[in-house]
Every structure is written in structure tokens, then in C-alpha cells.
Amino acid sequence: MDLVKYIQEQYTETKEFPEFSAGDTITVYYKIKEGNKERTQFFRGVVLQRRGSGTTETFTIRKMSGNVGVERIFPVNMPALEKVEINKRGKVRRARIFYQRERTGKAARIKERRM
């Protein structure tokens, strides 16, 4: 098992992103390749969870697009990730806030954490 960790640490490049957790509103900028063109797209939403550790760590973001909820899972070490911006820090009591999926409108608001 240590051999696998050693190889992952040696051959995968780790990126430094700001510290964020569940309840935070973040913007993720990532590259999209369409044919021979490459562009940057962003995805802004609330972090539902962070899971895993090391090279296999992922985070799930949820946003509302019209009346439809859209969730996207990003690996932290994805080569296409450019940067992560924290827009708001949220005050939640759990590490995984899947209860947000059923909430809409004012009920879906998350209090802002004071720094």
C-alpha cells in the first residue's frame, strides 16, 4: 500500500488551492477543449462535500441553473483545473450537506461565516 502512495506522490502534480469546505460558495475555473480550440469556463456554486485524500481527493459543487439543480464533481488534481476562488464562506454544521438538494428559495440560504 505504501508503494502505491509513493508512486502517486512522485508522478502526480499537486496544485495549491485555497482552503474551502462544505457550505462555501466557490468559483472553479477549468479548461475545455473543443476540437483544436481551448477555452476557460467557470462553475460557481455551493460546495456540498469534500471527499478522499491525497491524489484521489474530490469535491462536489451544486448550482441552480434556472429551476434545475446541477451538480459537478471535480478531482482536486485534475490537470484542467486552473484556479479556485472563494466567494463566500458558509456556516454549516456538517461536512456533507446533501439536505440542500431538497431545498429551494429562501430555505436554501446558508448563513455567512464571519472571519
Compute the number of structural domains. 1
Which band does the percent of strand residues land in? 35-45%
According to CATH, what is the topology? SH3 type barrels
N-to-C terminal Cα separation, in Å?
Answer: 40 Å
State the total count of DSSP E strands. 5
The biggest beta sheet is recorded as: 5 strands, antiparallel
Judged by helices, strands and strand pairing, the structural class is mainly beta
Low-confidence stretches: none
Which H/E pattern describes the elements?
HEEEEE
Globally, the shape reads: globular
The CATH class is Mainly Beta
Mean pLDDT reading: 91
Radius of gyration: 16 Å
CATH architecture: Roll
Instruction: Enumerate how many helices there are, as a single number.
Output: 1
Give the spatial strand order of the biggest sheet.
4-3-2-1-5
Q: Helical proportion?
A: under 10%
Structure write-up:
The chain is globular, with a radius of gyration of 16 Å. A hairpin with a 6-residue loop joins strand 2 and strand 3. The protein has 115 residues and is mainly β. It contains 1 helix and 5 strands; from the N terminus they run H-E-E-E-E-E. It has a single domain, classed as SH3 type barrels (Roll).
